[in-house]
Design goal:
Chain lengths: 180, 180
DNA sequence: ACCCTACGTGTCATTTTTGACATGTCAATC
DNA sequence: GATTGACATGTCAAAAATGACACGTAGGGT
């Protein structure tokens, strides 16, 4: 149950609306690499956090839009979550990686086809992330965009690792095909 | 809902028991990097797969242990899942990465402390994976251990990416601290 | 003026996952 | 011979996530 912490983290850098939070977690780098969630989980969770006093309502905007900000209690909760508990066994769901592992059940030619597709995909994604990264200057830890900067940088590196792994796997499969 | 596919994938390389499957998904490389699950989800899911005829029961062993094997139908299901649907927006939950992103809410010194802890952790994990990897020879795609080999190789690379990202982040934070 | 799209927030039933509890077996150590 | 720990499989209530549905608004283009 890390969704509340993801929301607190996003709100810790700057106040946002439920819509913006949902978008980041559904399509943005944070959703892609760390914790994906749809708006149907976000809105109820925001109300729970509001009830616990970990976030505060900052009034209405244009279309019933409500902006939330983290409270001191919320910040304390987040900090203790980060500092206190150890780097133990954590929740993990990574569908793309699962699919890559499963590739060994296909015959080598098909597996290679899929791996090439994966490479194209991470290349496109990495290019987009690089563009995003270029927009943040060297604003890293505080500043309203430090969060996105860290995420984009991680994304580029994670994609690169996948890319190189896929190339390695293609090589292995090719080798296996020619030496039966 | 990729758990059934994870199980089919594991069973595609060699028959296993629910206990072995649970262990791999709870503590092994597949669980760590691709899809974590406890035995409480695995056993019911196995019975569902059995009901659908995607896996078959291969009789009992020592302590009521039951070994399952993938069926032809199961293999077809798995292959079409891998080949047919596109590399679209997928499920993603990665608690360690989420925590790293959130680090920007701590003050730089605390963030650096946590990052060093992360580095130690991935180093230890990578060392273990390298040991595991060494045990599989160059048996890659078929063979009973191709699966684990792919997973271990990916794990080493993913850990390496995290390691380098953490080093980069420490550098950024240090820079920020000295230039206020 | 009209239409379309993105904005914006929500509910609710169904499906999935988690965590606590339950139960028994085999092998090795003391 | 007793105890301990890993092996082995399950149930069930509670919590969380998903997907379908629902409703209204502001702005841009034609």
């Amino acid at each position: 149950m890390s969704l509340p912490h993801a929301l607190l983290g996003l709100l810790a850098t700057e106040p946002r609306s439920g819509y913006e939070l949902s978008k980041e977690l559904a399509e943005g780098p944070v959703g892609r690499f760390a914790w994906k969630a749809g708006h149907t989980s976000v809105y109820p969770e925001l109300n729970r956090l509001l009830g616990k006093g970990l976030i505060a309502d900052r009034g209405e905007g244009p279309r019933g839009r409500r902006t939330y900000a983290i409270t001191d209690a919320g910040r304390r909760e987040l900090q203790s979550w980060l500092m206190d508990d150890p780097v133990g066994p954590s929740k993990m769901r990574n569908e793309p990686v699962l699919r890559m592992f499963l590739l060994s059940v296909l015959d080598p030619d098909d597996a290679i086809t899929v791996l090439r597709r994966v490479i194209d995909h991470v290349d496109a994604e990495a290019a987009e992330l690089r563009r995003a990264r270029a927009q943040y200057g060297d604003t890293v830890p505080p500043g309203p965009e430090g969060f996105g900067h860290l995420a984009a940088e991680y994304g580029v590196r994670a994609d690169q690792a996948v890319r190189e792994w896929a190339l390695w796997a293609i090589d292995q499969l090719g080798r296996h095909r020619s030496t039966p």
